[in-house]
Amino acid sequence: MAEKTEKRKAEHIRICLNEKAQARNATAGFEDIQFIHRALPEIDKQKIDSSTKIFGHKFSAPIIVGAMTGGTSEATRINAAIAEAVEKLQLGMGVGSQRAAIEDAKLGKTFAVARKKAPTAFLIANIGGVQLVHGYGIKEVKKTIEMIDADAVAIHLNALHEAVQPEGQTNFKGVLAKIGEVAGELDKPVIVKETGAGIAAEDAKKLEAAGVKAIDVGGTGGTSFAAVEYYRSEMNSVQQFLGDAFWDWGIPTVVSLTETTQAVKIPVIASGGVRSGMDVAKALALNACLASVSQPALQAAAKGAKDTENKLSLLIEELRNVMFLVGAEKVRDLAKTPIVVTGKTAEWLKTRGFNVENYAKRGAR
Ligand SMILES: Cc1cc2nc3c(=O)[nH]c(=O)nc-3n(C[C@H](O)[C@H](O)[C@H](O)COP(=O)(O)O)c2cc1C
Known about the structure:
The chain is an alpha/beta fold. The protein has 18 helices and 12 strands. It is 48% helix and 13% strand. Helix 9 (201-209) links the parallel strand 8 (190-194) and strand 9. It is globular. The relative contact order is 0.17. Flavin mononucleotide (FMN) binds at residues 12-13, 16, 66-69, 96-97, 126, 154, 156, 193, 195-196, 218, 222-223, 271-274, 293-295, 298. The site of flavin mononucleotide has 26 residues, from helix 1, strand 7 and helix 14.
């Protein structure tokens, strides 16, 4: 069982590094968000403070690397590279699903390397929500946290991924109640994250009521797990057909983020197709507390810690530049900066009954 999980995880890495497993026709929607340039920013770029505090932890910038890997020797190298970079920059990271290491304890070190290389950065453990339906409980979740001395745990929801793969676990009945049990008993924050299909306001409200401490929207527009399964499949198989049919399935990240931040009071993390510091700034303007980047960090981490650090530093520099041009001295000022929501994203949100006009009216100075 653990071997099978390991093989599948190695294939995910190989495909995400070498194939175009990104949304094909869908976009995350960041192109529909526009800032208003200020010719009179009235701030000193050198004095911009990009730091933020969440869960009592200070991040030098509101950026984390999303959950990706563990379980194999290549995964160890990737986790180590990401950890080294986020430690240096004082950011945060998630490790991939730790199920393999719960099944086979000797794989624990492929995840624990993250804490070894990042003694002080914010680390997020990871386990599948569907695993909670299939027998896992508080004991296993605690193990994931202890394994990497995590600051929080992410429970991932991946119905799309499970549905398009032949070995998928598709019984999600009772998953919310199980998440609620874990969130109620654990002394570390529980984050619930999607993995590329987004979270609707209806589900965000249920998760908040169940006691989760943050939501990571994991929307559509970046890595597509239907695409990953397409590349894993055999010619003319059902898996290939479903991977192709559901390639772009889901709620675009910007739509999901806007719905969720308008529906709940708990912190919301933006992820799914976040590809630039500008995207990070737009996510924060839409009230995200952090933005999370996965696939681009994987590409960099495959080359090493220095490349990962460079990639993340560029995101921070681009974010700081946006902050300068809109006159935002602090990260929280971005959530007061006027933005215009246009195009398909505005249409989608208006049709669903969400307000998009107020973003343009706020904070005029
Ligand atoms: C190779 C790879 C493996 C992943 N494995 C996991 C995982 O084990 N657990 C999880 O919660 N998310 C996993 N994800 C999903 C990411 O955390 C993220 O939600 C998704 O990739 C969208 O972000 P992106 O568009 O920046 O890649 C994985 C992503 C990639 C690229």
